[in-house]
Amino acid sequence: MTDWVKIAEDQEVPKLKIDLNADVPATTTTGNKDNEADVADPAETSLLIKILGKGLVNTKQSLDIQQKNPNSPLHSVKTFEALHLKPELLKGIYAMGFNTPSKIQETALPTLLADPPQNMIAQSQSGTGKTAAFVLAMLSRVNVALDHPQVLCLSPTYELAIQTGEVAARMGQFCPEIKLRFAVRGEEVDRNSKITEHILIGTPGKMLDWGLKMRLFDMKKIRVFVLDEADVMIATQGHHDQCIRIHKMLNSQCQMLFFSATYDKEVMDFARLIVSEPTIIRLMREEESLDNIKQYYVNCKNEEGKYNAIQNIYGCISIGQAIIFCHTRKTAAWLAAKMTADAHSVAVLSGDLTVEQRLAVLDRFRSGQEKVLITTNVLSRGIDIEQVTIVVNFDLPVDLRGNADCETYLHRIGRTGRFGKSGIAINLIDGEKSMSVCRAIEKHFQKDIIYLNTDNADDIEKIGN
Ligand SMILES: Nc1ncnc2c1ncn2[C@@H]1O[C@H](COP(=O)(O)OP(=O)(O)OP(=O)(O)O)[C@@H](O)[C@H]1O
């Protein structure tokens, strides 16, 4: 078993079997989704990426920093010592194996720890050290002489809250006087008691119950409010409303910290609306390039024809490893069954699997036990499988209106050709509609998608070279 699955297991993966969506409105979980476009649940994806993360991701992207408050100090630090933390916290950081701050930490920590406290809206890609940054801020702000909650941290799901709590527990291991409590389902408190822990980490529903309905702590005494996975929180209806209710009850002096790997425009506009005078740290747009990927299209009559094309190129695609993308779970299951019946060894990853099952599938694929992975859009951005050389679009990605979804195309074929290696993308076309989608993609990226005849052995040989 590879290390990362071991790590995942250590992180109590069995717990993940508990309904992941329990804190998410039911609309995201109901209905038969086999025939619909299979899309990733953002909170699940986030958890998956977090568990998969082997360590710190070094991003080459630059950060764009905007400050609303001209008086706030903005400088970056190159060492953790320069932050003048409590020695016990510094010891905790080193015990976690952190030697130097990551880029987001360098930039964000001086502002996060500054006095008077500054508000922040920060974006940085998954695995770059955001959690560690805000957890450090949370721990630093606690006054242990007071026995009431002073820090609230909201996560979209039970599992993500537990992950954050584990980071806080490890980082604060030499500060035993700092007390932390989870506000998640299953945690019960006596109605007549008061919460005395300093830090509460949990989901919005439970936090509202404890703070507003049961009045187990005083929201006005909260000094730091962290919204983790802010994009998911703000974009998910139920969470959105609950977060606003919590936010409204906070003191205007409370430090507001929003963290997320992505922010679309509406989410950022909303964040700016409710966070006053924030320092905003954002990623600069990544240069999007398909330069090292050769793209082909194959004309097929129908789904059977697409299957034949795959049969013809199977020898070629299984030299390295390939990912085949389908639009729906049903197509993915159909294709997998057919290929398996033809004695090809394939793995399937679609949205009906639990996070735990997805981890197991990815582990087998990464370790090379299967050469071909059939999937849908649930295998989304942020999940790297370095050894993939060929991506096949069994169905081209389209939006709800059936138009070319160029962004998804880029993310899908970006699974190959990573780190400057060359990759191959093969698009299976059946009929005029998918041809026009293919042309639209070609036009969008201004890069030729070349005709490939999979009935011709010479043509097939060409793709491998
Ligand atoms: N300064 C550091 N030095 C070494 N490792 C670090 C450092 N900061 C964080 N890490 C490690 O890097 C990994 C990713 O960090 P973290 O979980 O904080 O990232 P993140 O940006 O919050 O990711 P996500 O978006 O998935 O939540 C973790 O394993 C963490 O322990």
From TrEMBL:
It is an enzyme of class 3 (hydrolase). GO terms for cellular component: cytoplasm; nucleus. Residues 111-281 form the Helicase ATP-binding domain. It comes from the Eukaryota. GO terms for biological process: regulation of gene expression. One of its GO terms (molecular function) is RNA helicase activity. Residues 292-460 form the Helicase C-terminal domain. PANTHER family: ATP-DEPENDENT RNA HELICASE DBP3. This is RNA helicase. The gene is LOC111600939.
